[in-house]
Backbone:
């Protein structure tokens, strides 16, 4: 027997590499949210606006809306072709293709911005196409590589990529923007890092753990333990209509939408809000945002452990408790955050950090409910969360565009926070009505195996 460095835990390598790729793709599309602050001070290229000379990179709120929405349009357009690519070619090739596209468009973003606003919008659209691959990758990695008794840990790790990408991107972009390199090098750095991690992905990942030489027999047994034959096989007849009309699944998606809307709003507008409303200096914004997001990370793994290992509480009770903390308490935190004045800006940072900690409970809430209910089709449920993420990419900028005409006006921002809080309360109430820890009836016969892709996977 070959003595492997990773022993019987090669799945940990798969999770870490997958996680780095997810972080990279997400970081690439949110860089501009921070660099907006620096770009307007770059007068290497100028324009005349109402008789005043301004930086060519000083965008109006309407232009910023187009730039941000382009990613959402690209994500929506990319969902179907990306999922088809996953089905036909497997996650290894499909996700690698998305990573290369993300790296190229990110590296060329400064050039596109120097050409015109619409060239920049076009490249942002392509970044959205690449971004559409993220949640499908999460669903497949969990379905194929996660043992059932480690589901919450896998979910907790892989779905934390949004927060981690914000930590890395805000910190790195803050330093680079204030250095002699300038904001453009933030894009170049992220593009190079993205290409590097996806090359590692292509070398390490395989779509089927049974075909991976680095997976021991003992580890394979653990991965497949208590999984049905239909769960392990590659291609089944999937009951799409029943999945997409299930009240449980629809409520899971609503909860995911409310939480993702919150996280995306923070990732997109926190730098602007911290600068314009709370009065933080540019140099410290990246540090505070990174610190705020980093604090909640240990909570994610503690929550995952408690969800998987706690036996003194019924599974459905754990799901309701975790979901209320992950969804309902987030709404309460948003309301409190909206009322904190600039003179208490440190309190606002603390409040947002607490909000981030509450989101850590999602692995034992709606995510786990969807996984337990859909069983062998859980990858479909998790993958479809990408669509709710697309809606949230629109909803945040749409709410800001509708309510916020003056970025320094805290009252206008509070309207945005109250609307999102209202959705979290609605989703939390519905979860008590529909959530269950039992498998759906349409999972019972496991579907019909149509054909095997094992030979195709070997060729990839």
Residues:
């Amino acid at each position: 027997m070959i003595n492997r460095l990773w022993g019987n835990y090669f799945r940990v390598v798969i999770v870490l590499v997958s996680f780095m790729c997810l972080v990279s793709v997400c970081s690439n599309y949110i860089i501009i949210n921070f660099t907006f602050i620096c770009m307007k001070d770059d007068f290497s290229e100028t324009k005349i606006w109402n008789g005043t000379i301004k930086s060519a990179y000083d965008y109006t709120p309407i232009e910023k809306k187009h730039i941000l929405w382009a990613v959402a349009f690209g994500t929506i357009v990319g969902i179907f072709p990306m999922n088809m690519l996953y089905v036909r070619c497997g996650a290894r090739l499909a996700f690698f293709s998305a990573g290369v596209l993300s790296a190229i468009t990110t590296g060329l973003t400064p050039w596109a911005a120097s050409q015109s606003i619409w060239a920049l919008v076009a490249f942002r659209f392509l970044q959205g196409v690449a971004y559409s691959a993220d949640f499908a990758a999460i669903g497949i990695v969990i379905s194929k590589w996660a043992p059932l008794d480690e589901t919450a840990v896998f979910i907790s790790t892989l779905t934390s990529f949004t927060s981690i990408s914000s930590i890395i991107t805000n910190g790195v972009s803050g330093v680079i923007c204030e250095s002699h390199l300038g904001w453009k090098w933030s894009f170049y750095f992220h593009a190079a890092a993205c290409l590097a991690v996806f090359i590692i992905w292509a070398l390490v990942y395989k779509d089927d753990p049974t075909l991976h030489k680095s997976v021991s027999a003992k580890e394979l047994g653990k991965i497949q333990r208590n999984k049905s034959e239909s769960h392990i096989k590659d291609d089944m007849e999937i009951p799409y209509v029943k999945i997409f009309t299930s009240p449980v699944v629809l409520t899971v998606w609503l909860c995911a939408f409310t939480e993702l809307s919150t996280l995306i709003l923070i990732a997109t507008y926190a730098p602007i809000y911290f600068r314009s409303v709370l009065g933080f200096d540019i140099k410290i914004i990246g540090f505070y945002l990174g610190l705020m997001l980093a604090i909640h990370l240990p909570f994610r793994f503690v929550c995952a452990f408690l969800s998987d290992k706690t036996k003194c509480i019924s599974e459905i009770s754990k799901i309701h408790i975790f979901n209320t903390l992950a969804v309902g308490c987030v709404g309460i935190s948003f309301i409190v955050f909206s009322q904190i004045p600039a003179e208490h800006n440190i309190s606002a940072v603390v409040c947002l950090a607490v909000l981030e900690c509450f989101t850590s409970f999602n692995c034992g809430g709606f995510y786990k409910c969807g996984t337990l209910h859909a069983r062998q089709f859980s990858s479909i449920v998790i993958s479809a969360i990408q669509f709710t993420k697309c809606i949230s990419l629109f909803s945040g900028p749409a709410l800001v565009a509708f309510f916020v005409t003056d970025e320094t006006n805290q009252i206008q921002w509070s309207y945005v926070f109250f609307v999102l809080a209202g959705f979290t309360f609605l989703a939390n109430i519905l979860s008590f009505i529909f959530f269950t820890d039992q498998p759906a009836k349409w999972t019972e016969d496991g579907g019909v195996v149509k054909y095997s892709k094992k030979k195709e996977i070997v060729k990839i």
Q: What stands out?
A: The two ends are 26 Å apart (CA to CA).
